[in-house]
Design brief:
Layout (H helix, E strand, L loop, with lengths): L3 E5 L3 H13 L4 E5 L7 H4 L3 E2 L12 H22 L7 H4 L1 E2 L3 E5 L2 H16 L5 E3 L1 H7 L9 E5 L3 E3 L1 H14 L3 E3 L13 E4 L15 E11 L11 E6 L2 E7 L4 E5 L12 H14 L7 E12 L6 E4 L6 E4 L9 H20 L5 H9 L3 H19 L12 H8 L6
Parallel strand pairs: 1-2, 1-10, 2-9, 5-12, 10-17
Antiparallel strand pairs: 3-8, 4-8, 5-7, 6-7, 11-14, 11-15, 12-13, 13-14, 16-17
Helix pairs in contact: 1-7, 1-9, 3-7, 3-9, 9-11, 10-11
Length: 414
């Protein structure tokens, strides 16, 4: 039970996974390897926790994962804040806000798109309430009176990844988790240790068979002048000439505008992308003209062919793979962290338990029997399912570990 667990990657998923490891076993020895924590996709992300608004056609298998992760988020935030000796109900501390989301349409064609999207959301049991523009502007008066339609999604929220990431780091320090600021090497992934690889696009350096690709997004961060703050209080998402845009308010008076989506390999923000975002945001919320620009950045999201993440066990090393979260990395952090931690602890306990089956030990030592390897994996999944439900939750899991791994298997056909 004293075996060490190494996590490669200190983005939000990696950090939250480390925290969940300490929740499952307070004596767990954990270290995280990353030369620059919170500098990848988590640094650029707006942090929308939006299982309804993020729904897209032909991504049906993603919906249960997003919904499960959203259910687990309040518990994760609360437990992290308490471990960091902070107030779990203070959004300045956690970055977590439950102010809901409005999705708006700029013109009549966008209104049709909005209605079709709402029908799709409701077909999965998501709540999306149509509101008039007058009702919308009563709640958010800074929005344009010329909008063509609006929907309110009360269950879609937001978290500031930078604030929450710093909070997790504080909680991990309190629990003795070491963050080592260096790059990982192949020697850090081996069958003799338990490793979780959660470094986004970098995971393909260790497992070249992973079909990961960088999908770049331009993001702007603005500062609202004091006399206009808050410009908006809810997350505002919109369709403008069929282009998606979002305006995400921060508790400190900031705004995040995003995000473009391109696969051109250019790692710097583009003028065209920034212009489109500002024009479209201005169409739905003209008050942004009075804001100042603080940042324009471009971040790479780790995409997969079917836009589902990879959360699974590598056959050769026994390492847990947790990557490929694409546009949903922040939303899926709660799910990825808990599943990754459960798989890692189950693997460690299975290897360390002297009462384990001889077949399982033979498989771990020799890996030359397909039947034995399969039995060892099944035992790991059974243990993982037990661990998945152990954390303190307001909501019981809707999905089992097997349900989740069926959708996120690294060897699935895509």
């Amino acid at each position: 039970m004293s075996r060490h667990i190494t996590i490669i990657g200190a983005g939000l998923v990696g950090l939250a996974t480390a925290f969940e490891l300490t929740e499952l076993d307070s004596e767990c020895s954990v270290s995280i390897l990353d030369p620059a924590p919170l500098s990848g996709a988590s640094h650029h992300a707006a942090g929308m926790l939006a299982p309804a608004a993020e729904m897209q056609y032909q991504q049906d298998a993603l919906v249960p994962l997003m919904r499960q992760s959203a259910l687990w988020y309040p518990s994760l935030v609360r437990r992290v804040a308490l471990a960091a000796h902070s107030d779990p109900d203070d959004p300045h501390v956690t970055g977590f806000r439950r102010d809901g989301t409005y999705v708006v349409a700029a013109d009549s064609a966008d209104r049709v798109h909005l209605a079709e999207t709402r029908d799709f959301q409701e077909s999965f049991g998501m709540e999306a309430t149509q509101v008039t523009v007058r009702q919308l502007r009563k709640s958010e008066p800074a929005l344009s009176p010329n909008l063509s339609g609006a929907v309110h999604i009360s269950g879609d929220h937001q978290i500031d990844p930078r604030v929450f990431g710093d909070l997790i780091i504080g909680a991990l320090k309190n629990r003795g988790v070491e963050i080592v600021k260096r790059s990982a090497t192949p020697f850090d992934v081996n069958p003799d240790d338990v490793t979780i690889v959660a470094n986004g696009l970098g995971a393909s350096e260790f497992f070249p068979y992973l079909q990961l690709r960088p999908v770049w997004g331009d993001v702007l961060r603005l500062r609202v002048p004091a006399e206009l703050d808050p410009l908006v209080t809810s997350v505002i998402r919109g369709f403008v000439r069929d282009r998606p845009v979002y305006v995400v308010p921060r508790i400190d008076g900031g705004l995040v505008l995003g995000a473009t989506s391109r696969e051109d390999g250019r790692d710097q923000p583009l003028v065209g992308g920034a212009l489109d975002l500002m024009r479209d945001a201005d169409t739905i919320c003209p008050g942004i003209r009075e804001c100042t620009i603080e940042e324009i950045t471009a971040g790479a999201r780790p995409g997969t062919p079917d836009d589902l993440p990879y959360i699974s066990i590598d056959d050769g090393t026994g390492a847990v793979v947790s990557t490929g979260y694409f546009r949903h990395g922040i939303l899926l952090t709660a799910l990825g962290a808990r599943v990754g931690a459960a798989l890692a602890i189950a693997g460690r306990e299975g290897a360390a338990d002297p009462s384990g089956s001889a077949d399982g030990q033979t498989s771990a030592a020799a890996s030359d029997s397909v039947a034995d390897a399969h039995e060892a994996l099944e035992e790991r999944l059974v243990k993982g399912n037990e661990l998945l439900t152990r954390a303190d939750d307001d909501d019981a899991p809707e999905l089992t570990l097997n349900d989740i791994l069926a959708a996120t298997d690294i060897h699935r056909d895509v």
